[in-house]
Automatic annotation (TrEMBL):
<feature type="transmembrane region" description="Helical">
    <location>
        <begin position="85"/>
        <end position="103"/>
    </location>
</feature>
<keyword id="KW-1133">Transmembrane helix</keyword>
<dbReference type="InterPro" id="IPR050327">
    <property type="entry name" value="Proton-linked_MCT"/>
</dbReference>
<feature type="domain" description="Major facilitator superfamily (MFS) profile">
    <location>
        <begin position="16"/>
        <end position="400"/>
    </location>
</feature>
<dbReference type="Pfam" id="PF07690">
    <property type="entry name" value="MFS_1"/>
</dbReference>
<dbReference type="InterPro" id="IPR036259">
    <property type="entry name" value="MFS_trans_sf"/>
</dbReference>
<feature type="transmembrane region" description="Helical">
    <location>
        <begin position="313"/>
        <end position="338"/>
    </location>
</feature>
<feature type="transmembrane region" description="Helical">
    <location>
        <begin position="144"/>
        <end position="164"/>
    </location>
</feature>
<dbReference type="InterPro" id="IPR020846">
    <property type="entry name" value="MFS_dom"/>
</dbReference>
<dbReference type="InterPro" id="IPR011701">
    <property type="entry name" value="MFS"/>
</dbReference>
<feature type="transmembrane region" description="Helical">
    <location>
        <begin position="377"/>
        <end position="396"/>
    </location>
</feature>
<feature type="transmembrane region" description="Helical">
    <location>
        <begin position="286"/>
        <end position="307"/>
    </location>
</feature>
<protein>
    <submittedName>
        <fullName>MFS transporter</fullName>
    </submittedName>
</protein>
<feature type="transmembrane region" description="Helical">
    <location>
        <begin position="12"/>
        <end position="34"/>
    </location>
</feature>
<keyword id="KW-0472">Membrane</keyword>
<feature type="transmembrane region" description="Helical">
    <location>
        <begin position="176"/>
        <end position="195"/>
    </location>
</feature>
<feature type="transmembrane region" description="Helical">
    <location>
        <begin position="345"/>
        <end position="365"/>
    </location>
</feature>
Amino acid sequence: MSTVIATAPARPAIPLPLVIVAGCIIAAIGFGARGSFGLFTLPVTEDLGLTREQWGMAMAVQNLVWGIAQPFAGGIADRYGSARVLAFGALVYAAGLVGMAFSPDALTMTLTAGVVTGTGIAIASFGVVMAAFGRVVPAEKRSFVFGIATAASSAGQFIFAPLGQGFISAFGWQMALVWIAMIMLLMVPLSLALRGRAEPGPGQADLPFMQALSHAWGFGSYRLLVAGFFVCGFHLAFINVHMPAYLVQCGLSPEVGSWTIAVIGLFNILGSLLSGWLGNRLPKQMLLASIYFLRALAIAAFLLIPVSEVTAYIFAAAMGLLWLSTVPLTAGLVTLFFGPRYMGMLYGIAFLSHQVGSFAGVWLGGVVYDQTGAYDLVWYLGILLGLASAAVHIPINERSHSGFMLKPA
């Protein structure tokens, strides 16, 4: 039987509400800027003469690099503190955006948009923010505060979608990226509010990165959680990058595409808060299974009904409620399983699975469109994966597994 270790949250150097506000603004900027990249699909491909597959590959590499770097960013933040990690990440993120603006071809775009920007997103991600929250927020409130952070990310998407489209319309896509990079620099001073690092609790061992991961991977429920998170990434990345272009293909304007992304972000605020609130009251694994099942239903309905502005906004609202509502529940399960000490790293591993799914969703979207002239096959695959992920989450055992962190007697 696992031994449950009760650890008191670390006392923040500044008042907790200010820590949460600063972290939420960082999450909003970082995720909001990333959420606007789908708006650049048409102007970038048309201006540079890129195929959808080439642009999709750059975005797919971005998601994959984001996922690979995330566990290391989280582990470094766990050990050395979140503030320096977030500030450095903001600088890398901004550099990647400026590099994107002046990329002349597909290879350079893959390096700047994919490798550099993906690394910056990982280091300055809301995953690192939530790890910082996990250190200072009492256990009984963590799921709800994680929901608040996720809702802030969604608010960023709601803000940056019309803002990004406005920048593109007013200044062109290149200067739009430069302006977004300048906004990114606001994260540097805000990161000072998240100073501090995770400390081992009473009786806990301070395990090296790989040893802690090895012990955690032996817990079957954690493996199922990681596997199911792949599908979340597949859905989000495909819709975020290819949905605006899909709606234009269906005869709607680019502005409808940008507002569709904004509506997803708006309704995701409600969905994330509701998910975090319910996560403190109902079994998290059953809530996750329900979210993935409802996503499959929403996609199926969207394909069956003729596309119009109304149906696009209704679908965006439905997906928004289910969009990042998986995040507070997944992060909540990770901290329930293992405690806050290794949350940045262990949530980062789950997020790596998410980003492998993102890579698949973005890349397949481009490949299928170039080969068939439509996105239908990827939509159908999204339905099947949603049903599979719902089934994977049902057997998860919602209990602590923090006993493996005990110091040897």
